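[scheduler] slot 2 assigned
[scheduler] job type: sequence-to-structure, two independent chains
[scheduler] chain ordering preserved from manifest
[runner] begin chain α
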Amino acid sequence: MNWRTIAAIVIGVLALAVGIYLKLFPSAEVMCGTEVMSPGDLCETTRRGVTRTYTYDEMKQNAALAPYALMGVGVLALLFGGFQVWRAKKKVAAEAPAA
């Protein structure tokens, strides 16, 4: 196995585990960066020079979707790693001399 395969499997397992943990034990607090939000608060974020403003409800909804996104990334990474393992085994079998 090459380093990409191992990295994909490790990242997949970690992302899946963190996603499951966040789903099973959700935080009661809605965060804007490192600050706790209350209903009626606004959260401003700037990425690549673009500033966006989110309401408390939007941030709460984003926080509720985060575990699913992590689990999705984990599954995709594990599928990629599994495919790489399968492909490597197939290549080794094709190169092996016939008995």
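[runner] end chain α
[runner] begin chain β
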Amino acid sequence: MNRVLALILAGGEHPALSVLTAERAEAAVPFAGKYRIIDFSLSNCVNSGITNVGVLTQYRPRSLQEHIGVGKPWDLDRRIGGVHILHPYIGATIGWQKGNADALRANIDFIAEQPEELVLVLAGDHIYKMDYRPMIQAHIAKHAQMTVAVHSVGGHEVHRFGIVTVDHESTVSRFEEKPKRSASTLASMGIYLFNKDFLLNALRTSTEENIGRDLMPKFVRETNVHAYHFQGYWADVGTIQAYFEASMALLTETPALDISDPNWVIHTKSAEMPAAEVGTIATISNSMICDGSRINGSVSGSIIGPGVVIPAGATIVDSIIFPNVVIEPGCTITRSIIDRDTHVLQNSSIGHKQNASPNHATPDLLNTGLTLIGAHNAIPANSTIGTNVIIKPRAPLSQGGTPMTIADGSTL
């Protein structure tokens, strides 16, 4: 694997994740309590023996950069290779990146200087465990200039992805970017393997902004593009609903994604916190509880991040609570995502109704009864917050702690 340079695209803005990406890149969004989304791509690299990794950033990179640091949790703090945080910049011929091809083009000098012969381009916003070695071996065996990883999706989902049509030898014969309908249900996973010389030439001789939308149709017409069929679990969590469903799927009796597999460890930067503390009157069922949490209330069907406080008299149902959230006695939280460092004062109810109208401002984004509370908020005591509600980070919620009643579908 010393022949392969990996580049993780982690710089895009993702408004479909609403408040979760208001102050961080999607790749830095917490997942499964203690992890960040980018941990999966980074761990896949090192578990596959790839130890020269570039992370391309742009949108709100501070949280992502602090998480990755020098790459020690992934054994990427190396003198040769290791992890490289590749920041955007403005130069004589370079502006802010407008797409993933544009991001690669901005780092063409870095790519050219690396000794590896192959370049593996990865999305930093997908949840999956994948050994890249079989894909690399297939690429070499097929003498392909480019290989794209594909995964079967439901026919109702093709509009979310680039859709690939292949022949009997898995050579790509057609590529459609987010079609309304398609006879093929093979979705591009946003994982591309290039011969480095081919990639460099394509970037130097074009001005296209996106690999999928702009370059893939051209590559399919002009060269040998191979499709590698990946059979394992893979989730694009680029929408609130997809993120919530992927998170809740971890709580099933036999989850499709096994994050406890000792043979494929998902590495992450862990906070220095003591073990979770569960009181004698706490009731916990079908939930994940992270280090540093103190639980004395009732938790069911939920994911509780590090450092969360849930006292006696508080009830959490089917929710995701991010790190360092403090919930006071008497609170009831149902089908909600509460971002980090938020304080919910006593006797408040969040997500208290079902079958409410969609969010008025973004009905396509939030319409299934979830409620989103952004980071660094303080919910006044005795407040009632409905469903399909969005409260943005650091919102000026109430003067003097006056209780709030926020109707279903509202945005603050």
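[runner] end chain β
[qc] chain β: The radius of gyration is 22 Å.
[scheduler] slot 2 released
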